[in-house]
Every structure is written in structure tokens, then in C-alpha cells.
Amino acid sequence: MHKLETVKLSKRIGNKDIVNSVSLEVSSGEIIGLLGPNGAGKTTTFYMICGIIEPSSGTTLLDGKDITRLTLSQRARVGIGYLPQESSIFADLSIEDNLYIAAEAGVLSKKEQIARVEELLNAFNIEPIRKRLGVKLSGGERRRTEIARALVNRPKFLLLDEPFAGVDPIAVSEIQGV
Q1: Per-residue model confidence as pLDDT tens digits over 92-130
Q2: If I label 123, which of 51, 130, 171, 175 is the partner at 20 to 30 A Cα–Cα?
Q3: What's the CATH code, domain 1-70?
Q4: CB-based burial of residue 23 (10 Å sphere; 0-12 exposed, 13-18 middle, 19+ buried)?
Q5: Which three-class secondary structure state does DSSP give residue 27?
């Protein structure tokens, strides 16, 4: 069982508190949501947990180990995955290349990368269009590709920032089925 924890995580810009003393604890297998109005600091909290921005104060722990100063890519290697709210697809790359580029940044062997990419292409029903460029994808195809890419390195924890924003209800249902 893995545990992700934040202790009094805060972000201050100038004299404005963006996030003030957020503490949370999540164990593997749990699903939690951060709820609040626009501008409440949900995305900023995700950014601090994932290593996109540094907190002004506070600590992020993974299995009791302080990961606060690790970069985004270092956190990905130790098991923190992140799916941003905004589109993150590489428009000039194919679906499979989008998955492979993420896999190469992780800790899987080449053989494991190939097997994992194939597994996710099939699981997300994007195998038939694997050669299609990101720029040519529908909203649902794009989001399925982004979620598959976030899962390619088998993260211990996956943070999803509004995972279904801009995706039609049928595609949402298909994605939830995975």
C-alpha cells in the first residue's frame, strides 16, 4: 500500500495566498476530489504535488519520503502521474508516439514499454487509429490518448485535473469504462 501526503502545502505570490496550508493524505486505491470554485487553488495544489511549481512552504511525501524538491520528471519516475486540465497532446506526433515519448521518460525497459503501449492502445480503443497525428484527433480521442499517456509508466498515484473537460458524454462514458 502506497501513501501520498501533503503537509501544510502553501503557495504565496507577492502578498497573496494562492494556496494556504493544504494537508491531505491518500492511500493507493482511494479516489478523492478537490472541490472549489474557479480560482480556489485546486490546479495550483496539483502543480505543487506534481513538481510543476515549488511550494512557498510545506512538504509533499510519497511513502514517507520527502519529494518536495523533486522535479516533475523525477516525481513521475517515483510514481506520481498527472493529467492536466488543458490539452497536453503533442499535435505533430501520432497517438503511439505520444505514448512512447512518455514511456521513454520512465523506468520501464524497452520491452516493457512496447508491451505497455500496446496494452493501453487496446484498453482505450485507440489501437485502430494509433498512427493518427494528435492534431487530427477528436476531443474524446485526444483525451483517451492523454489518459493512456498518463498511465503508461504505471504511476502509484494519478492526479487528474478536470479529466472530462470539453469531452462529449459518450466519450466520457467510454473513458470511465476503462
Answers
A1: 999 999 999 999 988 899 999 999 999 999 999 999 999
A2: 51
A3: 3.40.50.300
A4: exposed
A5: strand
